[in-house]
Structure formats: structure tokens, C-alpha cells
Here is the input.
Amino acid sequence: MSIPKEPRQQMINIMYLVLIAMLAMNVSNEIVNAFKLLDSGIKSSNNAIDKKVEGSFKQFSKAVEKNPEGQIYLDKANELNGFATEFIGKVNDMRGTIMGMYSESMDAEGIWPKKADDQAETQKYMVEEGNADVLMGYIAEYEKKMKSVFEGENMTEKDRQSFDDALLLKAKGAGDIPADAHNKDSYGKYVFNQMPMVSVVTLLDKYMNDAKNSAAAGVDILKSKVSEEEILYDAFDVAIVPSGRKLIQGDTFEAEVFLTASSSASKPSVSINGKGYPTDASGRANYKVQASSLGKKTIKANLSYKDGFGKSKTVSKSFEYEVVPPPDHVPVVSATKMNAFYIGLDNPVSASITGVRKNKTNVSMSGGGTIRADGSGYMVNVSSPGEVNVNLSGTNEQGKSLSYSVPFRAKRIPDPVAKVGKSTGGSIKSGEFKAQPGLRAELADFLFDAKFRIVAYELTRAEKGADLVIVKNDGGKYNGQSSSLISKAKPNDIYYFDKIKAKGPDGKTRSLPSIVFKIY
Here is the structure.
């Protein structure tokens, strides 16, 4: 058995060996309790490994987005994780069978049987019925499959050796058993002969923990291969690309603001409208042209560079602008947040006529709705869907009367989405499900701060082998009946939230789609 690098895993292995030695002398309550504590630590370690693997895969996927050629290693990582999951499932089935032998006599917490020191049932199952040898077969199969992931032309001998060093479960070495004990006649008796139930279950949990640790180490090895040729960008700046350099009073200034990054190793070259331009030390080219003729103009830039992984890339971008003569009076009406007015909300707008003073400009609404002055702009309220108009009139400095009408759409606020915590349904852990205070409504991807509140819903629990239990709930927060129903959640239960009603800022009550959760 390989020596793990993590101190926590090393401690777990040492504790197991010490407890096995103590069991050889005497099965006392203290030793049984020590095994229970060890098993709890193993389970805690499993949770930490799961979070680490989840984080590694997120980083892995982001690295592959930047370097698509790394997809082959991400596929291998998924294959590696799949083999570990397959092995853990088989061992967990064995664990479940053993726990099932004692299901009629469990302790108050329902975690361990009262006779955790019993040896007869586990002796029969593991040794006499030959399941210890089946387990050894699982370990050998697991080792072979895990090592096969590191075969092929894309993997080096160094990769294979690194994974072999990190592999905690091997056919010769599982559970710190001497090599001469690994044969069909002696393995089961050597490991499981006269061992109490608590030590057998703990050993199975340790095997599953070793499998997870090995897979996590393999994923890290594969992930490191995606970024081994990475070029680090060490020069950062802010780029501001405006819609225009000069504006007439009343115009809206727009600009793209974003972060730029470069590296001396990227060596960019720039061409604009087919002509090459020199770049400075930061890789920037300076383009100037005089706006001598009227009409639309286009700038097309091509930039060739080396990406973050040393590969040559070329990107193109076009920018259009228009050269116009000095403008006449033009109406300017723009929704501050979006090109629509929403029912039940204060919709901020700016409204003006270029070249006309604000105190000589009149603003009104037609088609349904009201508009009022609000600070430097205006606030619009509408009550029904359809088209409305913002009307502007005024007198310029020469005494000429001007009048304009600008159409807008009046729309209802979109329906919100019902959620429990952050989830809209699907599989959810029982602990996370029980920790939520109730059902809520969230309006996603909407620029206004519009709030919806749940006013009622129906909660149903579907438990295998039992009748459906249905309760009604007023408001979003769980009432007494709902809280009681939620507290009973256990794996494979299904919870339905139906007949969901929510009220928005427009005072209207809406029916939302049902959501369903499966507990695991």
C-alpha cells in the first residue's frame, strides 16, 4: 500500500493499524468506540475529498476552455473518476449488506448496531461465504482500470510512475497485508477471521476513502498536463473604447471598458485596413486618420499573437463610425435601464431635445401611463401592456417650435422562478434541503430591483412504500406542518411544490410552475 502524502490520511492509516493490533488482544467497549470515531473521521475525510475533486474539475474545465487540446486529459480524468465511483459502489454494497444483518437492533442514533462487537455474522459473510476474496477481486480490477488511464501515447513514464506512487489501493498491499497473504486460500482468513463487525465496516470505509484519494491525486496529475506549456501574462491595463470622441449636447456617451493582458512572450503583430503598424513594448499600435469626408467609415484590425499556451492565434475586429455635418435639433429619449417600461415599477428615463434648454422643454405621456420629473431625469409609470408614447415639445433659441413623439413598449414584469435555497429542483442532499427556511421567488436576469413574495403553495412528500402526504402552506416560510414534513426527508424521498402562488410589485398574483426535489 502506497504511503499517502496528506497528513490526515497518514493519521487515519496509522490509527487503523493500532486498533487492529489492540483487537488482537481484546475487544473492549473502548476499542469499539475508537473504531466508531475512526470511521467518523474517514467519512469526514470523504467529504473533504469530494469538495476537492469538485473544485479540481471546475479548474480543469476552465483550463480546457482556454486550451481545447487538453480535452483528452479531461476525458481521462472523468474516466478515472468513473472507475473510482464504480469500485466505491461495489464496496458500499458489501457494507450495506453487513449493516442489513443488524438492522433490527440499531443504537439510538441509528448509525451502529447495538452489537457492534459481534463476530459471528461478519465471519460467516466475509470468510465462510468467500466475500473477502470477492473484495480482493474488486481491488485488483480497480488497480488495473485506474492504471490503464495512464497508458497511451499522450502519457509519459513519469506520469505513470507519479500515479503509481499516489495509488493507495493495490492488489498486493491493500490494508497493509503482506504479499504472501494475498492468495485465494489465505486472504479472507488473514484479514477478516474473527474480526468484529465494527472493524470490518471501518476497513471497508477506509478502502472507499483510499479509492477517492487515489482518484483525486490522478485528476491533479492530469490537470497539470493541460497548463504545462502555459504562458503567463504579466502586463495588465484598462482599455476604454468610446463610441465617439466628440458629442453634441444631449447625446449619450458610451464606451467599452475592459481589462487587457499581455506578455513579452506573446509577440503580437497588428495590421489595420491591410496595412501593418508597429507596436510598442506593451504590444499596442496607434492608428490615426483625419475625418475629411462624410459618411460611414470602417476600421478592420487583425492581430496575430501567441495565446496563453504558446500557440499562434489571429483575431479580427471591426469598428464603424460615421462622419456627419453639424446636426439639426434631434429628440433624445432613452430608457435608463432598458428599452421598455414595466408595469408596477418606477421606470427612469432621460428626455431632452438637443439644442433646447430644459426649462423650455415640455415632456408628457400618451397611450396610457404617467411621467413626472425626478431629479435630473423623469420617472414613468404604466398600468397595462401595449404601446405608449413619450411626447416632447419646446422652443429653440431662434424661437422655432419643435414637437416629437417617441414610442415605447409597456410590458408586464417577467414571472419569477420558485426556489428552495439556490435550487430550482432536481437532486439535493437531505441536509441542504432541511436547512432551508421555505420557498422563495427570484426574478433572475432582470435589471430592476423587483421583488416577488410567495403567498401560498402545496407541499407533497412521496416516500417509497407509503401514501403521499400533502400539506398546504400560506406564505413562503414553512408552517408547522411543512416543517415537520421537511424534517423527515431521507434518501430517495421525492418532494413536490405545487400550486405555487406569488405576488409581485404590480399587486397581481401569479401561478408559478411546480418544482420537484429528489433527496439523496
Notes: The mean pLDDT is 81.
